[in-house]
Every structure is written in C-alpha cells, then in structure tokens.
Design the sequence.
C-alpha cells in the first residue's frame, strides 16, 4: 500500500503524459512521420496503462499470477488484432 | 513466406503432378483415404482388442455393483490401481515408453502427410505459373459475381452471361465476388471452389479435361433460396467451338443460350 | 449450517427456485440441458426427414433453415456445454474438497440466465421466424437488411438469447476459476486435482476468453440491428467493405476454442471413467494434462483454418495450417494414453465404460477425418459439404456420447440408486449402431452440399440410411430416460462408491452427498484424504459487493428477522427472469424507442438503493437525498421523452414490447439492489493461501478474472475497429471523413478533457480506499479534523461527479457530431466504429456509476471503514481503473490517430 504522496505523483505523471499525447498531435508531426509517431502515441498509452494497473490497481503488490492473467488476455487480444489485420495484407 | 524450402517443395510437386486441381485432389484424397483407413483400422482394432483382452472376468462382488478391489499388495502387475482419496502420482510400470513411441509414430505420419499436402497446396495456390508455360495458352480470366440466388459470369471482353461456357484443356482463372451476402462458388467435378464475399475478390483456377455440362453450386448458406442456387450451367466446349461462340455477337450468344 | 442450510426439502418446488447449493444447481443444469437435447434432437429428426428425398419435401425453405440453424445453436450452446456443467457443478467442488462454489448466488444466477436464455430462444420461434442464417451467423446475411421482414424480431430475439447465454457462461467461468484456484482442500496441489476437474479448469479458461469475443461479436451485430450501424451492412442492404471477413474472424476466434470447450469436459470424464473401469491410473497423467493445456492455449491461434477459402493471404494460411496440425498432435497423445491405460487393467464392460469406449472409437474416426481437412487442398473441396458435417458430428457427438457415459457413471452418486445395467447396455448398442448409421453415410455421400436440401438423386439411398440411423439414435435415448427415471424408484441403493477402483473424493462421501458435503474439513496434507474435526466452514460475510460482515450494524429488524446468512435466495431467479423480460422487450423495439425503458430504470435504481438501504441501515439524510434525486431524475427523463417522442403519443403508440422491456429493466435493477444488500452465506476457503494466487481473496480473484474477459470484450471491439480501418486504408480514415463525409473536424479536445477527468476519478477512488482503510476515526487536514468516513464518502462522491462530467462532455460531443454535423450511426463505417466502441466504454462508466451510488449509501453509514471492510472499495476500484485504462487507449485511437 503506497502513500498518498506516491499516488499523487503518479497522477501528475499520468496527466503530463496525456498532455504530451495531445501536444504531439498539435505539433503536426503526425502528418509527416505517421508511423513512428503512432508508435510513440501507443507507447505513451501503454506506460500510462501499466502505471494505473501497477500502482492504482496494486498489481505490483499482488502475486505474479494476477499479472499473468491480465497479460494472457492482452496477448489474446493482440493475437486477434494482429492475425486478422495481417490476413488481409 | 516463399522460403527457399517451400520453393523447392513446390518444384518437387510440379515435377510429380503438374496437372489440374482436380487431379491433385484425386491423388491426394486417395493417399489420405488409404492411410487414414489403415491408421483407423489399426488403432480401433488395437483399442477394442485391449479392452477385451484385459477384461475382468470375475462377477460383481456381494452387495456391490462391481468387482471386488484387489488390495494393492496382492497386485502382481506392478501397475498403480486407483484408491479413494488418493493423490494420483504415476501410473506404475508400463505404458509411458509405449506412449511416446506411438505418439512419435503418429506425429511422423501426420507431419509427413501435411508436408506432402502442403507442396501440392502451393502448386494449386500459385496462379502465376499459369502464365509461365511456353507452349500453353494463358488462362481464361472470368469474373464470377454471386448474388441471391444466381451466379453471373463476366468475360474479359465484357460479355456477361448466366452460363459459364469454357474451353476444355485451358486453365480457367475465376475471380469471385458477391453483390450481397456471402456465397461460395463451386463446381463439384472440376474441384474449384471459392468464397464469394462482398467487396472482396477471390481467385481460383481449374481446368476441364472433358467436354460436357457441369453443375455450379453455392456452398455457403446465403438465404432462403440457397438450396436452389445450383444449376447445370457450366458448359465445357471444344476449344474451336468455344472460340466460335466467344467471337460471335451479343445477339447470337443470346440465341445460343436460349 | 447444519440440516439443510435454510433450504426447503427437495420435494418442495420452492427449494429448486431459491437453492444456491452446487449439487442442486448441478441437477437443474442436467435436467434442463436434457430438455434442450430433446428439443434439438427433434429438430435434427426434422432435418433428416427433409433429407429423405431431394427437395423441400417436408419443410418450406425458410422453415428448413430455421430448423437447421436452431439445431446447431441448441446442441452446441444449450445442450453440450450446460450438460457438462451439470456434472461440473455437482462433482468439481466434491473432487477438490470445497463446500460449494466460491460464489453460490452467482452460480444460481448463471443457471437461471441459462434457462431463461433458452426460453427466450424458444420464444423467438413464435415471433414470426427465428434466426435462419446458420449457427455460424455469417455476415452480412445476419444483418437486418438480409433477413426477411417476418423474421426481424425473432432473429434479433435469438441473438439476444445468445447474449444472455454468454452472460451466464462468463459468470460461470469466473465462479469456477475462483473456486478451483481458491477452494481446494489443503494439501491438494493444482497438478493433483482429478482429471475431470482439471478439464473443467481448462474449459473455463477457454470460456472466459472465447465467450468474451463472442459477446463482442454479438453486441456489434445487435448494434447493426438496433442502432442501424453499418458494421456488416447498412439498412439499405449495402454490405460493408470488410464486414464479412470481420465476422468470420470474430466468430471463429470464439468458434474454434468453442470446439474444445464442448469437448474437454467429455475428455476429462473419459479419463476418469477409463481409470475407474480399467482399475488403473491414467498412463502418462502428467503428459495428458500438459497436452490438454497446450491445446487450450493453441486453440486461440488456429481460427483461420475455418477461413481457408476466404481471401486471407497465403502466409497466414500457412501459419494456420501449421498451428492446426500442431494442435492435432496433443490429441494423439491423449488418445494413446487412454488406450494404454486399459493394458494390464481390470477392464469391466459396464455401461459407463461402454459409452466411453464408443466415444473413443468415434473420436478416432473424427480425428482422422479432421486431418483430411487440415490439408488445405482437400479442405478446398470439402468446404461446405457433408464431409464437414460428418466430421464435426463425429467429434462433437463423441463428446456427447462420452458425457452420456458420465451420466451413467455419476447417476448412482447423484441419486443414491443404481440404474438398470441391462437397459444401459441395450441403450449403448442401439445408440452406437444408430450413431454410425446416421453419420458414416455422410462420409460416403460427402459431395452433398451442406445446408442444402437439394442433392443428387444418386445420393438418396445413403441419405435414407442416415435418416434411419437418426431415428434409431433418437430412440436409444428413450430407453435411457425410461431407465434413469424408473431406477429412481428402485431398491438398488448404493453406498459411497458402487464402483471398484474409484479415486477421487466424491466417492468418499455418501450417495447422494449431504448438503454440507463432508463430515469434516477435507485435507490432503497427510498424503491422502482425511476429514479433520471441527467446524468446517464459518458462517459469515456477505457475498458479492461486500466481503465481510459489517461491524454490528445489522439489526434483526432491518434484516427481515434473518440473523444468520442464508443459503436460499430468490434474487438469482428474479435476475434471470428480468433479463428474459428485458430481452423479449428489446427484440421488438425500434431504434427510437428501445433506450427509454432502460433510461426509466435508472431513477428506479436510485430509488431502490435509497429505500432498501434505509430499511437495512436505518434512514439517514443521504437516503433521503437518493429518494428525492430519483424523482428529479425521473422528471428529467420524462421531460426528455416528451421532447423527443411526445409523452402522450409516445406512450399511446408504445408497443407491448415497450412495457415488457420496462418491466424487465425495473425488476432487474430492483433485483440487483436486493442482491447487493442481501446477507448471504459465503463458503470460506479451507486455507487462506493457495497456489498460484496466494492470499488474493475470492472476490478479488473473481473481479480480476472478470476483468480478463472484459479485456477480450474490449479487444474484440478495438480489434474490429483496427481491422475495419486497416481494410479501409489506415491513413485515409479520418481524412475521408473530413473530405467526403463532410465532417468538419474531429477534435482532440473532448478526448483530452475526458482523459483528464477519468484519470482524476481514478485518483479519487484510490484516495477513497486510503481513507476507508484508516478505519473509524479522523484525519487532520491542515487545521481541519475530518472523519475518515466522510472522506471516504467524499472521494467516492467526487469520483461519481467525475463520471457525470465525463458523460456530460461526451454527450455534448455526440450531440454536436450526430445532430449538428449529421454524422449519424450509419453515416459511414467510421461513425459506426466510433460511436459503438466509445459507447461500450460509456456503458461501462454508467455501470460504474450505479455501483458508486450503492457504495455511497453504504459508506455514509461507515460500512467500509477498516482494513477488511475497505476491500469492497478496492474491488470497485479495480473495475473503475480498468475502465480508465481502456479509455487511455481509446483516446489516441479515436481522437488523435
């Protein structure tokens, strides 16, 4: 169980990362370097998601099996998305 | 995915068959059928034989609906017999090695069959080779448009018919699509089949070796009229005959089709 | 607990309505699924009657396709799995040494949702016509534009029945996973649980993920029906560009695991029965289990072998062929393990063994003919023919045959009476002969196109043989039903185990087992089963929303004079029936009307939370506020209804469906509130820490497994979006919306604002938890000294406010897009994906808000103050943070990229 300070710090980081995502859009870089910026964008979302899961949902304090459960579901989703999208290339 | 290995496989298959998809199917089906039957008969006989051989001949125990259990210490076979409330660890002597031997054999049979089948698949799937042959004609490209509940055929020159007239001994490359729901275009004897999907274009090829009339069938449930979406509308002609028909005017074609 | 745990005797009909005992539920599942077997079997006989001669001889085409489709639905969904789960309910807790499933009331709810979903499916026949597009529901034939008018309502009812069934399955999966991981007797390691329980464990894992994908597909399909989105086809009958392929992907991502979902329990039962009747432990048990686990994992990466003839590319076909062949190999090992177990055994040819032996032989044929289909060249020709029909019946029905063996095997355990062995053997012979007469001819005339009643005249003889076989196969079940029914009244009483060489724990207790299952706490710590003395379960705790009994606040008066937690509850059956009512109502409502019954249920929910809460905890200001707010909210909705529909004309023209939906929705929210406040028996784990989830409590594990399935549900939606957009041209997507669709702009701002709001609300939930954990007392904030209870309430309230702001912002955005810019649900495929995906997320937010309303009235009374008491807030937090995480991905995907 972490302290209120830590929770607040994480909250700050989450807000900053979200702002960065929007800022990236406003720089117009997306027009020029679509794929790399898309990668950065999704990476930022992933970092935020892991932070929320890790600290707010206390996954870091739980037995590993909880993480495996969630990761298994995410892998299933990725398999569906990647397989389906790749099949029509 | 066209690794050097798979290219090699494809050529190996080429050398052996280089025939129509119908030939490929017939050969492969025969191989599978013979091996499948063999494996099936052996495994099933062996199963029933064991179940019979090791049957317990003693009658049901007094007041019970089953035989009397032999206490473990009297059991000379060295196998582990289940006991109520046990933690099951190991099955005792025997079986384990056999299990892996038979598993390996089955794996070899299945993998062998599939590698062989895959080489043929690459051959059937490769439509580019149809244009490679030096002394053969290029394939005839026909668009097949499925709708509820009929097929329409569009020839390269724009001729649109509801009968598929094709020359024999020439590869036919169909490009199948649908205007409404999902259908599947297939001609049973010629072993061609492709899903007809709206807004998608699906290629398949075949070649007829005998003249005659064949049935085009929809192989995907496509609505209330699905069962009637079949008809003797594929007409395989002598090449000269086909050319005469194909070169004739729209009006004449309509007349032939009646 | 004692006697019957507050349950009426079994002769009393009320017992079966209120029971939450796993053995009762198991029996209910078995009987209900047998009923659906008979129903689906009669439909099968109709199919075989039609196939007696080519042509529409018995049924008209529409009738035939309804029959063929329903036969598939009923057998796969409403018979096979529930039949297996009848045994799972009865046997798994006994096998692992648990008093009951982890969540007994949820278990009862699973059952009632299952039963009533089947009832809804049955009703769909009488709403014009039920769904007639085949059990695979291929798109766009499943979209309203391609369904004849007379079948619109019935088809949608059938889809809703499937949605309801999926709900039942998901609840059941969560329950079984939690039970098997958390409720095992001490000393029983995961790897040592009996094979049937092991097979159920793997089955529910697959169910958890696969059915979530199906739910995604069904919700998307429902949206094409109800909101007129254009995922598959628009209302004018223009098929969407990638919709057909999208459906096949979604459906088979579910559909292939589903094959193993229906087969695995049968496999587990086969292993148990072969062990018992061979008098030998399974050969290569460890490898058998590993093989099953491999299959369960691999089942999620073979789905495109159902799509070899679509336009998917060569490399993916190759990959799927390899994985498909790969998945067949573990089955070889399992079959050999079963065969070798008989060697050196003491094999008794009793009825259960005969059925399992028969199932094994049938499965071998099914497996070999399946390898044919794995060779793509052959598959091209087999596609859409009776080869496929024969093959999958050999596989699926071998599972059914094995489960019939299981029925004979566990019948004495469940009833305490032995069936008639002679009739059992007759049943087997007739069934086995009938089965093969029915399905083997289909291999002979495999060139018959599937789902077509026209066939070549030359095939008639073999189709007639098959029809005769069908009658024989069906007749064999009459023998079984007669046998099992008459045996109930026989004097063939059995003791603990009528069979020699049984191993698992269910055979160590009387037949039928007493309500409390065991004479003491079961334990395996000594190396084998022992029953320890002492109280073997502690009464206490309130299930579901509340993990622990609250600190002495329950007064007898507030609790209907039930001082002790109960085993009986009316609310599961009410939950099922309200879902049925809402389902029937929804099936017949138009896009403009369907939402109102559910909106009107929201004020009802607020009212019930206030009223029921006041009765339980005593009336407070907050309860009063809830009651007043509910009337205010109702007034707002009525005003809105008047603006859009006109209150008089709207209600006058409201069809019966409207009132049914309203009744269902209101009864539903009332049921949920009562479930939340009910004081109920919770079986406690025998030890607090169990591998692999350590000390994670039951409810937390349940929440996490539920979230696992929710990840897949959202994954199916996001996957549909990605696939559709990919097919469309990824980077053209919004550009086209701007240029062609006339969408002025698709701004980042609303998305960013909502991201901020959700992140903040996550933060406040965490703070609520912090202050709840501090227990009773006060916290110094600067000069102020505030009660922790108030801080908890305050932060939940803030979170609720955040959710309101989120919806408000979204509402403003949607109104602008939908009305001002004319970007309606069916404007283009972009609007469909945008509204539906973010709409699903918004629905999650609304559900979260309903939970928060509940938490608010409880936290006001201080119910959550304390380390243990705060857990409820933690569980809610898990859900809320998850909803937040989903948004973190929706934001870039729908607002930026």
Sequence:
């Amino acid at each position: 169980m972490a302290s209120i300070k830590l929770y607040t710090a994480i909250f700050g980081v989450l807000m900053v990362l979200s702002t960065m995502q929007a800022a990236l859009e406003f720089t117009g870089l997306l027009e020029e370097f679509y794929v790399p910026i898309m990668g950065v964008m999704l990476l930022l979302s992933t970092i935020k998601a892991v932070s929320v899961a890790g600290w707010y949902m206390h996954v870091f304090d739980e037995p590993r099996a909880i993480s495996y459960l969630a990761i298994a579901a995410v892998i299933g989703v990725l398999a569906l998305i990647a397989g389906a999208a790749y099949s029509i290339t | 995915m066209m690794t050097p290995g798979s290219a090699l496989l494809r050529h190996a298959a080429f050398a052996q068959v280089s025939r129509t998809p119908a030939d490929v199917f017939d050969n492969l089906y025969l191989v599978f059928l013979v091996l499948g039957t063999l494996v099936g008969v052996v495994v099933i006989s062996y199963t029933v034989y064991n179940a019979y051989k090791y049957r317990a001949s003693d009658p049901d125990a007094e007041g019970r609906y089953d035989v009397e259990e032999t206490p473990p210490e009297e059991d000379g076979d060295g196998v582990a017999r289940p006991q109520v409330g046990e933690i099951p660890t190991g099955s005792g002597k025997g079986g384990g090695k056999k299990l892996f031997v038979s598993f390996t054999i089955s794996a070899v049979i299945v993998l062998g069959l599939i590698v062989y089948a895959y080489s043929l698949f690459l051959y059937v799937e490769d439509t580019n080779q149809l244009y490679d042959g030096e002394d053969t004609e290029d394939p005839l490209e026909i668009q097949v448009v499925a709708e509820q509940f009929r097929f329409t055929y569009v020839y390269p020159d724009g001729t649109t018919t509801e009968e598929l007239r094709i020359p024999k001994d020439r590869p036919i490359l169909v490009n199948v699509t649908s205007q409404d729901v999902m259908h599947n275009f297939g001609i049973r004897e010629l072993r061609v089949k492709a899903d007809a999907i709206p807004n998608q274009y699906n290629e398949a090829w075949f070649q007829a070796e005998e003249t005659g009339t064949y049935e085009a069938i929809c192989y995907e449930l496509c609505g209330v009229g699905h069962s009637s979406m079949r008809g003797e509308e594929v007409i395989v002609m002598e090449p000269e005959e086909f050319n005469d028909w194909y070169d004739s005017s729209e009006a004449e074609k309509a007349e032939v089709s009646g | 607990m004692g006697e019957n745990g507050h349950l009426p005797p079994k002769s009393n009909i009320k017992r079966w309505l209120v029971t939450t005992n796993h053995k009762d539920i198991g029996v209910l599942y078995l009987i209900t699924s047998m009923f659906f077997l008979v129903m689906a079997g009669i439909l099968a006989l109709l199919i075989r009657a039609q196939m007696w001669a080519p042509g529409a001889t018995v049924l008209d085409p529409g009738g035939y396709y309804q029959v063929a489709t329903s036969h598939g639905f009923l057998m796969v969904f409403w018979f096979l799995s529930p039949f297996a789960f009848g045994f799972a309910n009865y046997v798994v807790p006994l096998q692992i040494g648990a008093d009951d499933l982890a969540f007994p009331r949820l278990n009862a709810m699973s059952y009632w949702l299952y039963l009533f979903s089947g009832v809804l499916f049955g009703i769909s026949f009488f709403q014009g016509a039920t769904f007639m597009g085949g059990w695979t529901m291929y798109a766009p034939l499943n979209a309203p534009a391609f369904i004849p008018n007379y079948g619109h309502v019935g088809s949608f009812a059938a889809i809703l029945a499937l949605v309801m069934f999926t709900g039942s399955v998901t609840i059941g999966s969560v329950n079984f996973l939690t039970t098997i991981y958390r409720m095992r007797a001490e000393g029983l390691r995961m790897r040592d649980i009996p094979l049937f329980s092991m097979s159920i464990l793997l089955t529910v894992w697959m169910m958890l993920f696969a059915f979530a994908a199906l739910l995604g597909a069904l919700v998307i399909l429902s949206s094409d029906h109800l909101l007129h989105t254009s995922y598959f086809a628009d209302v004018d009958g223009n098929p969407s560009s990638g919709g057909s392929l999208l459906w096949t992907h979604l459906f088979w991502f579910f559909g292939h695991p589903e094959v193993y979902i229906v087969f695995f329990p049968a496999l587990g039962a086969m292993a148990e029965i072969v062990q018992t009747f061979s008098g030998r432990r399974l050969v290569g048990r460890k490898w058998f289990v590993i093989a099953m686990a491999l299959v369960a994992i691999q089942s999620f990466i073979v789905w495109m072998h159902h799509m070899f003839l679509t336009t998917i590319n060569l490399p993916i076909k190759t990959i799927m062929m390899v994985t498909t062949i790969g998945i067949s190999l573990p089955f070889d090992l399992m079959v050999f393990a079963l065969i070798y177990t008989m060697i050196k055994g003491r094999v008794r040819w009793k009825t259960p063994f005969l059925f399992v032996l028969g199932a094994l032989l049938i499965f071998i044929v099914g497996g070999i003919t399946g390898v044919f289909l794995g060779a793509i060249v052959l598959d091209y020709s087999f596609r859409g023919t009776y080869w496929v029909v024969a093959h999958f019946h050999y596989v699926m029905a071998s599972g059914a045959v094995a489960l019939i063996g299981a029925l004979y095997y566990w019948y004495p355990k469940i009833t305490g009476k032995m069936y008639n062995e002679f009739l059992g053997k007759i049943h087997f012979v007739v069934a086995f002969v009938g089965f093969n007469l029915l399905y083997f001819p289909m291999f002979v005339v495999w060139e018959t196109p599937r789902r077509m009643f026209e066939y070549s005249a030359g095939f008639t003889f073999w189709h007639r043989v098959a029809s005769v076989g069908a009658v024989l196969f069906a007749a064999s079940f009459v023998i079984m039903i007669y046998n099992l029914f008459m045996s109930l009244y026989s004097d063939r009483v059995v003791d603990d185990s009528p069979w020699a060489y049984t191993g698992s724990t269910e055979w160590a207790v009387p037949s039928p087992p007493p309500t409390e299952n065991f004479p003491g706490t079961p334990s395996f710590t000594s190396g084998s089963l022992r029953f320890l003395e002492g109280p073997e379960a502690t009464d206490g705790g309130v299930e579901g929303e509340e993990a622990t009994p609250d600190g002495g606040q329950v007064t007898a008066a507030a609790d209907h004079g039930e001082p002790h937690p109960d085993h009986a509850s009316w609310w599961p059956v009410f939950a099922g029936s309200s879902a049925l009512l809402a389902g029937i109502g929804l099936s017949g409502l138009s896009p403009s009307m369907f939402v109102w019954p559910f909106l009107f249920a929201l004020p009802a929910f607020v009212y019930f939370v206030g009223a029921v809460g006041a009765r339980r905890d005593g009336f407070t200001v907050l309860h009063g506020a809830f009651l007043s707010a509910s009337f205010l909210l109702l007034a707002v909705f009525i005003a809105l209804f008047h603006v859009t529909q006109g209150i008089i004309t709207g209600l006058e023209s409201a069809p019966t469906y409207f009132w049914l939906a309203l009744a269902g929705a209101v009864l539903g929210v009332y049921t949920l509130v009562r479930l939340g406040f009910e004081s109920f028996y919770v079986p406690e784990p025998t030890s607090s820490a169990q591998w692999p989830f350590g000390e994670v409590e039951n409810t937390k594990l349940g929440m996490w497994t539920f979230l696992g399935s929710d990840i897949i549900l959202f994954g199916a939606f996001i996957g549909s979006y990605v696939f559709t957009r990919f097919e469309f041209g990824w980077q053209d997507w919004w550009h086209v919306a701007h240029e062609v669709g006339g969408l002025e702009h698709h701004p980042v701002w609303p998305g960013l604002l909502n991201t901020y709001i959700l992140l903040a609300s996550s933060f406040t939930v965490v703070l609520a938890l912090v202050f709840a954990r501090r227990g009773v007392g006060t916290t110094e904030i600067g000069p102020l000294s505030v009660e922790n209870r108030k801080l908890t309430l305050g932060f939940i309230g803030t979170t609720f406010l955040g959710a309101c702001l989120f919806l408000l912002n979204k509402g403003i955005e949607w109104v602008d897009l939908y009305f001002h810019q004319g970007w309606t649900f069916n404007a283009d495929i972009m609007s469909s994906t945008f509204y539906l995906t973010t709409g699903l997320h918004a629905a999650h937010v609304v559900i979260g808000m309903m939970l928060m309303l509940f938490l608010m009235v409880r936290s006001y009374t201080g119910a959550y103050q304390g380390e243990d008491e705060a857990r409820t807030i933690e569980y809610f937090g898990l859900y809320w943070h998850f909803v937040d995480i989903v948004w973190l991905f929706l934001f870039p995907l729908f607002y930026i990229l």
Observations:
- The domain at 729-896 of chain C is CATH 1.20.120.80 (Four Helix Bundle (Hemerythrin (Met), subunit A)).
- Chain C has three domains: 13-508, 570-677, 729-896.
- Confidence is low (pLDDT under 50) at residues 535-563 of chain C.
- Residues 312 and 666 of chain C are 46 Å apart (CA to CA).
